[in-house]
Structure formats: structure tokens, C-alpha cells
Amino acid sequence: MKKLLLIVSLFILSTSITIAQNFEIQHIINDVKATYAPDKRICIYDIKVVEKGHTSILKGEISDFEIYKTLISDIKAVSPATIDSIRILPDKSYRKNYWGFVPLSAIFIRVAPSFSAEITTQALMGTPVKILERKGGWLHIQTPDGYIGWTSTDNIQRINEAERNAYNSLQKVIVSNHSAFVYQKPDIESDIITEVLMGNLLIINNNHSSGKSSFFHVSLPNGEKGYILADNVLPYNQWKNTIKMTGDDMIKLGKTFIGLPYFWGGTSSRGLDCSGFTKMVYFMHGIILPRDASQQYYCGQEIDTTNGFDNLQKGDLLFFGRKNEQDSTKPVIIHVAMYMGDKKFIHSSGQVTISSFDPPSPDYDEYNKSRFIGAKRIIGSSMKGFWSIFEHPWYNSSNQGK
Predict the structure, then answer these.
(1) Kind and range of the H or E element at 220?
(2) Measured distance CA(137)–CA(134) in Å, rounded
């Protein structure tokens, strides 16, 4: 009887120790998530601890290797016997071939691998992406701004980092018109290969003149070749060297989108949501903003608007939403616009349109004035929360720009 009681006591003690240990491990999992991976839009972090016998096992998946190393280090420090069964993305079957370039003018990216799932963003032709995994005809990808989602465009060719860098070193053009066509021949009467959109990046093969028109012979990311009118594009280095990061230039480009319909998840000239609009305008000036308004809010330099709008400059980002009663430093951001001067702003709301904070103005927007939160300045500020396309490693190689 005493022996049985001893066995039961030891079992209860062992179970209690395991429960306490798993509680501590779960606390570490939660702490690492809160510190390093709070935004599920840019990092997959789905980790849990399970018990098998009296052994603790880590299950789930994570898309950031550095965060994974931090997690394992912290857990092993308190529980060396914990078994690591975490799946690290990109999928290990890809080895190092988990890079690719968007082959179409714009692809939809959804929150889940289903056509009924919400569209969260788009990616433009020539955008480098990281391919995390594949399920059926869907690819789980990450874009240069960190955004993660699923696309049904499963014909993105998988390449390694060296091949990505080699592709980046090739001469390119960027589409500067809202839309254009790539033709089979240097003749606008020839068959169309594809439509391209503003911000698409194409490889230059050579120049070609035909009659009164000048064309570039270009290659698409999928290897197709064709011809595009030179008036519809800018050579990459010319674009890089002639960009004017001024508020006037931002507003000039932004106004060319007026009337374009609002499209949830849109970041292309086929349709834009509010943050897609600001993202596109800044991208065409060499700046990669985060995807969503709530992410863009943490970019750049905060501008004091407590006494009105006199401190604002053209091109500043304006944010709208509601205050967070629990944390005043983290308001709930719902909408973003771009300041035009004279209390006017341009934004995608129903369609790309101009509104005003000034009550006498015919464009007065009482609703958005009532939910105005604050403003951030990107032009001339340090690279806080955003990137230069010319310095972003996914777009560059040792030869880029030479």
C-alpha cells in the first residue's frame, strides 16, 4: 500500500512539475510573440506547447528564423529537455529556392488559400516575393513590405537568392503610365501579349524604333518577350536619378488617380483602397510604405496638429480613426489620406477624391475631420518604418544601379 501511495505521489508531483513547466513555456511563447511578432500580417507565429507523457513539445510554425532562434534560446534556458517540433517557413522542401518575381501586372493576395477569402493586398509585376509554402494551387508569399498572404498565381518560378540578385542586376524599365500594353512586335497594331500597370518592372533587352514610334524590347518575369512604347516607361536608372521627393510632385501624381474607384485590398491603378493609394503614390517616388493605414501610422516623423493644420506640408500622411482609451499612443487607425495644402487632402474613399477640413469649402468633409487622429511626415524624414526601393535588399544586387 505504501509503495502504491509513493508511486501515486510521484506521479502527481511529476504531473504538477510538467504543468508548471508548460505554463512557464507558454508564458515565454506569449512574451516573444508580444515583443517580436505582434503583427500577424507580417509574421506567422503560431506556436503552442503540448504535453506527451511528461515531455513538453513545441508545435506550430513560424516565418522568421531570427524570432525562432530567440524563442528556442529562451525556452531551452528554463527547460532544456523541451522537444522542438516547430515548422519553420519557407518550407524546408524548397531548400534555398524560395524566391520569385510576380509574373502578372497585378496579383491578388488573400488572407487564406480560398477564392472566398478576403483580398488583403496586391503585388505588381516584377515585385520580388518570398515563397513560404504551397497548398494545392495556392502559394503562401511575403512581399517586400513584409505582408504575408495567399495567391492563386501559382506560376511564380522559384529561384534562389543568387538568381534573384542576378535578375535584379539586369537593366529594367518601370511603367510610368497608369496602364500600357506589351506587343508581339514593335507596332501598336500587332497582337497584345499583356497589359501592364504603373509600377510594373520589366527587363530591357534593347531599344527599337519603328516609324514615328520608339519601343523598348522587354522581357517579362516569366520569360515572355515583347515590345512596349517608350513613352509608357522610364529606364530604371533614369527614374532613380530624376525622382523629385517634393510635396508638389506627390500631389501631381496623386491627382492623376482622381475618379479611380475604391477597391478593398487594391494597390494598383486598377483600383485602390485608402492605404493602397498612399502606398502607390510613394512607391512611384521610390518609397515602399507598409501596406495598411494602421502600419503607415508608425512611419516617419510625427507632426504637431494640436492647434490646427498650419504645421502640415504637402505630401504629409493624415490618419483617421478613434482614440484608444487603454493606450493613448496606439490609436485605432481606420483611414489614411495625403495632405495637399490649404486644408485640403486627397484620398481613396468611394473613389479617389479631394476633401477639405475647411467648413466653408464645397469639399468640406465633416466626417473625416471629426475622426482626425494626426499626421506623419515621410518626405525628408529618417527611414523609420519604411524603405527606399533602391536600398531594399530584395530589389537589389551588388550590380544594381551601375
Answers:
(1) none
(2) 7
Asked if 186 contacts 215 with a C-beta cutoff of 8 angstroms, the reply is: yes
170-236: same fold as 92-166? Answer: yes
Instruction: Judge contact between 119 and 131, C-beta under 8 A.
Output: no
Residue 210: pLDDT over 70: no
Number of Cβ within 10 Å of residue 377's Cβ equals 19
8 A C-beta contact, residue 182 and residue 196: yes
**Strand ranges of the sheet holding 148-151, from the earlier edge strand across to the other edge:** 99-101, 128-135, 138-142, 148-151, 106-110, 119-124
The per-residue pLDDT for 360 is 97
Asked whether the CA dihedral 120, 126, 129, 135 is positive or negative, the reply is positive
Buried b (16+ CB within 10 A) or exposed e, 27-40: ebbeebbeeebeee
Q: Quote the CA–CA distance of 402 and 400 in Å, as a whole number.
A: 6
The residue written with cell numbers 477569402 in the block is 117
User: Which residues lie closer than 8 Å to 348 by C-beta, 6 or more apart?
Assistant: 257, 260, 262, 272, 273, 274, 276, 277
**Annotated domain spans of the chain:** 2-88, 92-166, 170-236, 247-388
Residue 205: its H or E element: strand 201-210
Per the listing, cell 477597391 goes with 263
SS (H, E, C) 75-125: HHHHCCCCEECCEECCCHHHCCCCEEECCCCEEEEECCCCCCCCEEEEEEC
Architecture of domain 2-88: 2-Layer Sandwich (3.30)
> Which residues, listed in sequence order, are joined to residue 376 by a DSSP beta bridge?
302, 317
Question: 101 pLDDT exceeds 70?
Answer: yes
174-200 pLDDT tens trace:
999 999 999 999 999 999 999 999 999
At 379, the amino acid letter reads I
Tens digit of each residue's pLDDT (9 = 90 or more) over 255-275:
999 999 999 999 999 999 999
